[in-house]
């Protein structure tokens, strides 16, 4: 438990102090955000705001986790190393995307095919290792079943199918956070809530783990307490970054942050056997992603008509005249309700024994 508190505190401290330093450096180097001309006109005032703040989040998470490990004299677990690999790997892909946008002064960075290839490579390495790295009891970080609050039934899917499922989870979650990151503090605050929920879930799974407390309702999750340390580091990093990212934002996380945070959410869902529960837990990200899918699909099928004034969903409300801070706070409330509902479902399943 001490490691969880240390990881959260140190990662929060690193982003609180490190982001201020990063803003100074990025402004000096001219690494400012480009704004789409077809977006809300109110966003034009944000042109030039430093971006790539996701690098600070990544550094904070690594510092928080490894300081916690050193302070408690405990070795890193395979599950934690894997999820940190996924997190950092996607952060590097996002960094390349952000850097190309800034250096070439264009709103598009990596080509979609290149970005997708990078995500697939990182996700493939993660998936193959996660289904093969067994501990002394034969448990792997990721099972070969589909889960809600735990694996659904005892049946297992072929390894190839699970790898595809893992890639879909990573792509969906990382792009969901990426689409949500359109207003000051929106994705950062919502992400902090989700990772905070995974701290609670992992602690509960550790206290009810089959390796130590076998029973009908125990959890077959590997390294849950160490996963809680990573989740705490991510929560602290997001909260500290939000100090500078809240409206009016002094810095943006960029794709460096959004892709990596989304990937980490998928990793936690896979490792904690809460894959389908993530749809509820990250309900805000799901709704915003769905708005883009619906908008594009309806536009093509109807010959140019639109459901929303603009997608993603948050921009629709901007064009309706809602103030940015109003949208962000109300969307945070929605995200909080989704997280509370998901935690309620998770606990109810354990109590009910279904």
Describe the structure.
There is one protein chain. With about 350 residues, the chain is an all-alpha fold. It has one domain (about 1-135, about 150-350). About 65% of the residues lie in helices and about 0% in strands. The chain has 12 helices and no strands. The protein has helices spanning about 1-30, 55-70, 80-105, 110-130, 160-180, 185-205, 225-245, 255-270, 280, 285-300, 315-320, 325-350. Helix 1 (about 1-30) runs parallel beside helix 7. The longest helix has 29 residues, at about 325-350. It is globular and about 55 Å long.
Features:
mainly alpha; 12 helices; 354 residues; 66% helix
Mean pLDDT: 90
Tell me the helix content.
55-70%
Poorly predicted parts: none
| DSSP summary: helix tally | 12
How many angstroms separate the termini?
Answer: 29 Å
Total domain units: 1
How many DSSP E strands? 0
Order of helices and strands: HHHHHHHHHHHH
The radius of gyration is: 20 Å
Largest sheet: none
Identify the overall geometry: globular
């Amino acid at each position: 438990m001490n490691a969880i508190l240390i990881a959260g505190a140190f990662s929060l401290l690193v982003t609180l102090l490190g982001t201020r330093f990063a803003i100074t450096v990025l402004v000096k180097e001219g690494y400012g955000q480009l704004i789409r001309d077809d977006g809300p006109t109110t966003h034009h005032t944000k042109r030039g705001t430093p971006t790539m703040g996701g690098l600070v989040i990544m550094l904070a998470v690594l510092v928080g986790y490894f300081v916690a490990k050193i302070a408690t004299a405990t070795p890193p677990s395979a599950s934690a190393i894997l999820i940190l690999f996924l997190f950092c790997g996607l952060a590097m892909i996002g960094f390349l995307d952000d850097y190309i946008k800034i250096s070439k002064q264009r709103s598009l960075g990596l080509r979609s095919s290149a970005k997708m290839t990078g995500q697939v490579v990182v996700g493939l390495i993660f998936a193959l290792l996660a289904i093969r790295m067994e501990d002394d009891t034969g448990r792997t970080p990721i099972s070969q079943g589909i889960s809600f609050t735990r694996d659904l039934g005892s049946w297992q899917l072929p390894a190839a199918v699970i790898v595809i499922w893992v890639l879909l989870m990573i792509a969906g979650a990382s792009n969901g956070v990426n689409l949500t990151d359109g207003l000051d503090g929106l994705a950062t605050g919502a992400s902090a809530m989700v990772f905070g929920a995974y701290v609670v879930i992992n602690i509960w799974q550790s206290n009810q783990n089959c390796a130590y407390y076998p029973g009908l309702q125990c959890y077959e999750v590997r390294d849950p307490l160490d996963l809680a340390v990573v989740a705490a580091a991510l929560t602290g990093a997001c909260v500290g970054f939000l100090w500078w990212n809240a409206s009016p934002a002094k810095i943006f996380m960029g794709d460096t942050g959004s892709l990596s945070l989304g990937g980490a959410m998928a990793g936690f869902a896979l490792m904690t056997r809460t894959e389908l529960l993530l749809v509820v837990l990250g309900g805000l990200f799901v709704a915003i992603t769905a708005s883009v899918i619906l908008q594009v699909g309806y536009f093509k099928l109807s010959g140019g008509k639109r459901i929303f004034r603009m997608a993603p969903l948050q921009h629709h409300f901007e064009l309706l005249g809602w103030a940015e801070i109003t949208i962000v706070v109300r969307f945070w409330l929605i995200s909080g309700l989704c997280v509370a509902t998901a935690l309620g479902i998770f606990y109810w399943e354990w109590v009910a024994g279904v």
